[in-house]
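Recall the central idea of this unit: under ordinary conditions, the amino acid sequence of a chain determines the structure it adopts. In this exercise we apply that idea directly, starting from the sequence alone.
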Amino acid sequence: MDIRRLDHITIAVRDAEEAARRWQEALGLPIVGRYRDDGGEKIEVVQLRAGEVLIELTAPTAADSEVQRFLDRRGEGVMLLSFRVDDAAAALDELRQRGAPVIDQQPRRFGQVAFGFVHPKGFNGVLLEFISGS
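Accordingly, the structure predicted from this sequence is:
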């Protein structure tokens, strides 16, 4: 597997707008995107750019959100590291062969992007994502 770069870091927060204000004021990082998904993941995200890496400040929009469960268990903090690879399916296969606790047998799709996850229990409590496409 050839990891090209760290794509983004997801930080679970209770309030995305308040967190973005603090990160922007203290570090001068520009906001480059925002999105909300009330149906699937039930999250609100503010994206900041730090060089080539995005920092996604992610807050839950519902009590049954995975982000809310993370916050309830661990509080605010780093939830996910996302790595850019040439082929997400091949990366998941290789990780599975190496014994990593792969969550997705096949990548999920969002438009032209393919991505899959590795369980946090395999990497010191951090959810890993492997992403390919544009």
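The first strand starts at residue 3 and ends at 12.
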